[in-house]
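> call design_seq(struct)
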């Protein structure tokens, strides 16, 4: 019997073509498997592995304003949620701890606003940190007038290792005046109130 390696290579694969394989559920019998069935099986596995599951939702309704220029303030997301038995948890100080390694999608929202006195421009810087080390670039919003609101929404992926801690900080930079932060708003039109900061986390392949 000729070796498999000696057969002609077929570069025109169709769904009805077959591959030789071993059926582990039938005493390791040698069987033919349709290309179409193998493709469907692989696609099903990929779809399962890429399932996106919401694992955390957190929100805070307090005003979050740094105490002065060039003084970082860690952003909080309401009360503590989750336990060590969950893929991820957050404490009341805004420390987001990943309890399971994996790929996550992080969606965050912040309501930047300037209140208080007028004059000059307020430069509010913000950044993310993983295990206390800045991750990515520093970003800013500039608020030149009082009662100015800038909603900021971002979504980013993170490949987390169990034990990693994610935090965010804001700061009134001294290139501007000591004004501005994250503010909550009470709405009178019957809708839910606007939080100062929110956080939603999704795990891929849970």
């Amino acid at each position: 019997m000729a070796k498999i390696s000696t057969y002609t290579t077929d570069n025109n694969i169709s769904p009805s073509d077959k591959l030789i394989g071993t059926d582990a559920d039938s005493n390791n019998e040698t069987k033919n498997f349709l290309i179409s069935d193998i493709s469907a099986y692989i696609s099903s596995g990929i779809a399962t592995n890429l399932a996106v599951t919401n694992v955390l939702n957190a929100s805070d309704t307090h005003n979050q304003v740094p105490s002065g220029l060039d003084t970082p303030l860690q952003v909080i997301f309401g009360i503590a949620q989750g336990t060590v038995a969950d893929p991820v948890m957050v404490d009341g100080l805004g420390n987001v701890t990943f309890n399971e390694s994996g790929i996550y999608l992080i969606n965050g929202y912040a309501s930047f606003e300037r209140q208080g006195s007028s004059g000059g421009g307020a430069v509010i810087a913000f950044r993310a940190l993983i295990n206390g080390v800045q991750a990515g670039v520093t970003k800013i919003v500039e608020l030149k007038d009082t009662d100015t609101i800038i909603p900021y929404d971002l979504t980013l992926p993170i490949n987390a290792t169990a034990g990693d801690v994610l935090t965010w900080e804001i700061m009134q930079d001294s290139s501007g005046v000591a004004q501005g932060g994250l503010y909550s708003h009470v709405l009178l039109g019957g809708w839910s109130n606007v939080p100062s900061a929110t956080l939603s986390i999704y795990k891929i392949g849970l």
